[in-house]
C-alpha cells in the first residue's frame, strides 16, 4: 500500500508540474527603445520583361534562337527590363541555364544598350554598350554579386543578350536557355 501512495504522489507531482508549465509563459529578458521618429514606406516591387506595353514576369524571347548554328555562331536579341512597381529597385541577371546537350557548349554576353535597335540580330551591339557579363553560360551573372543595376519606379532599360556556341558543339543538338533575374527593393 505504501508503494502505491508513492506512485500516486509522484504522478500527482508530475501532473502539477505539467499543468503549471502550460499555464504560464514568460521571458527572461525585456527591452525597450525610443527612436527619434522616421518614415515607414510600403511599396510594390515588380520586375517585368518583354516588349513595351506587353511586359510579363516570364517571357519567351523567341528572337534568341536559331537553326543550323555552327561552331562559333551566335544568336542575339534585345530584352527590355522594366520596373513596374512604385519603388526603386535593383536587379541583376542572376543565372542562366540550358538543357543538355548544349549547356556546356554555350557562352553568354549580356550588355546594357541604349535601345532595342542597338541590339541587331546579326551584328555587334551598337552605340553605348555596357557589358554586364561575358563568359560561360553556367556562371552567368551580371553584374556580378554583390553588384546590382538600379531602376527607378516606372523606368526601363534594354539588355542585349547573346548566346554563342563554342568551337566544338555537339552536332544536331538543341537546347532551351533560361535566364533568371533577381530583383530587390533599391
How would you describe the overall organization of this protein?
It is a single chain. With 186 residues, the protein is mainly beta. The protein is built from one helix and eight strands, in the order H-E-E-E-E-E-E-E-E. It has one helix spanning 2-23, and strands spanning 47-49, 74-83, 89-98, 106-113, 130-136, 149-151, 156-165, 177-185. It has a five-stranded antiparallel sheet, with no helix packed on it. The longest helix is centred in the first third of the chain and has 22 residues, at 2-23. It is elongated, with a radius of gyration of 29 Å. Residues 5-24 have low confidence and may be disordered.
Layout of strands and helices, then pairs:
Elements: H1 2-23, E1 47-49, E2 74-83, E3 89-98, E4 106-113, E5 130-136, E6 149-151, E7 156-165, E8 177-185
Antiparallel strand pairs: 1-2, 2-7, 3-6, 3-8, 4-5, 4-7
Rg, alpha carbons: 29 Å
Beta content comes to 25-35%
Could you give a short account of the major beta sheet?
A: 5 strands, antiparallel
Task: Write the H/E string, N to C.
Answer: HEEEEEEEE
Q: List segments where confidence is low: pLDDT < 50 over at least 5 consecutive residues.
A: 5-24
Classification by helices and strands: mainly beta
The number of distinct helices, counting runs of at least 4 residues, comes to: 1
Q: State the strand order across the main sheet.
A: 1-2-7-4-5
Assembly state:
single chain
Q: How many beta-strand elements?
A: 8
- State the helicity in percent bands: 10-25%
Looking at the structure, what is the overall shape? elongated
- Mean pLDDT across all residues, rounded? 79
The rounded distance between the terminal residues' Cα atoms is: 75 Å
Amino acid at each position: 500500500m505504501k508503494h502505491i501512495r508513492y506512485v500516486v504522489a509522484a504522478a500527482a507531482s508530475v501532473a502539477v508540474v505539467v499543468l503549471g508549465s502550460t499555464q504560464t509563459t514568460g521571458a527572461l529578458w525585456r527591452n525597450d527603445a525610443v527612436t527619434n521618429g522616421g518614415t515607414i514606406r510600403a511599396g510594390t516591387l515588380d520586375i517585368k520583361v518583354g516588349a513595351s506595353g506587353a511586359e510579363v514576369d516570364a517571357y519567351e524571347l523567341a528572337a534568341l534562337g536559331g537553326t543550323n548554328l555552327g561552331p562559333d555562331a551566335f544568336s542575339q536579341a534585345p530584352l527590355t527590363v522594366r520596373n513596374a512597381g512604385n519603388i526603386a529597385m535593383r536587379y541583376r541577371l542572376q543565372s542562366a541555364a540550358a538543357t543538355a546537350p548544349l549547356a556546356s557548349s554555350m557562352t553568354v554576353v549580356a550588355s546594357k544598350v541604349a535601345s532595342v535597335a542597338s541590339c541587331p540580330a546579326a551584328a555587334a551591339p551598337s552605340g553605348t554598350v555596357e557589358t554586364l557579363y561575358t563568359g560561360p553560360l553556367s556562371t552567368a551573372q551580371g553584374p556580378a554579386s554583390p553588384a546590382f543595376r538600379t531602376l527607378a519606379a516606372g523606368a526601363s532599360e534594354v539588355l542585349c543578350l547573346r548566346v554563342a556556341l563554342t568551337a566544338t558543339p555537339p552536332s544536331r543538338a538543341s537546347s532551351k536557355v533560361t535566364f533568371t533575374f533577381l530583383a530587390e527593393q533599391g
